[in-house]
Amino acid sequence: MVFSSCETKPYYDKTYSFKGKTWNQRLKPEFVVPVEQTNQYFDFIIAIRTTTDYKFNNLWIYLNTTTPNHQTGRDPFQIRVANDDGTWIGSKTGTIVENQLLFKRRKFSEKGNYKFTIEQAITEKTVGEILDIGLRVIPVK
């Protein structure tokens, strides 16, 4: 799913930049979100920026979640980057393409620190032309 940026100020917004535009499977960016309230809904956005030299039409990731009481989950997701005809799906500026995966209207179940770890899950050990990946948590009005 591709969506444009929201207008509301993010509750959490961090980005991990890849050295040499390369994401090795051993590298798993972590994002720790401190949660103070459990009655608020949030939209979660995973944003990825690639160059126009990215050679795939998608990127598979695993999203690992650890709650404050150490419960864990691991879910696979596909981020579509280009159509079958090679046209870019996300927003393109020069040689940079940004795509987003949106999880709408979620609540945190308890207070404390939530850890989100993102793994690249394609069949190759390294994938090139990836600039960065980020997590935004935005309160729903």
Helical stretch tally: 0
The count of domains is 1
SSE string, helix = H, strand = E? EEEEEEEEEEE
- Low-confidence blocks of residues: 1-6
Structure explained in plain terms:
21% of the residues are buried. The protein has a five-stranded antiparallel beta sheet, with no helix packed on it. The protein has a four-stranded antiparallel beta sheet with strand order 3-9-5-6, with no helix packed on it. Helix content is 0%, strand content 56%. The protein is mainly β and 141 residues long. The protein has a single domain, classed as Jelly Rolls. The N terminus is likely disordered. The protein has no helices and eleven strands. The two termini are 21 Å apart.
Name the descriptors:
141 residues, Jelly Rolls, 5-stranded antiparallel β-sheet, 4-stranded antiparallel β-sheet, 11 strands, 0% helix
What's the SSE blueprint?
Elements: E1 12-17, E2 22-24, E3 30-35, E4 42-51, E5 58-66, E6 72-80, E7 91-93, E8 96-106, E9 112-120, E10 126-128, E11 130-139
Antiparallel strand pairs: 1-11, 2-10, 3-9, 4-8, 4-11, 5-6, 5-9, 7-8
Concise overview:
The chain is mainly beta.
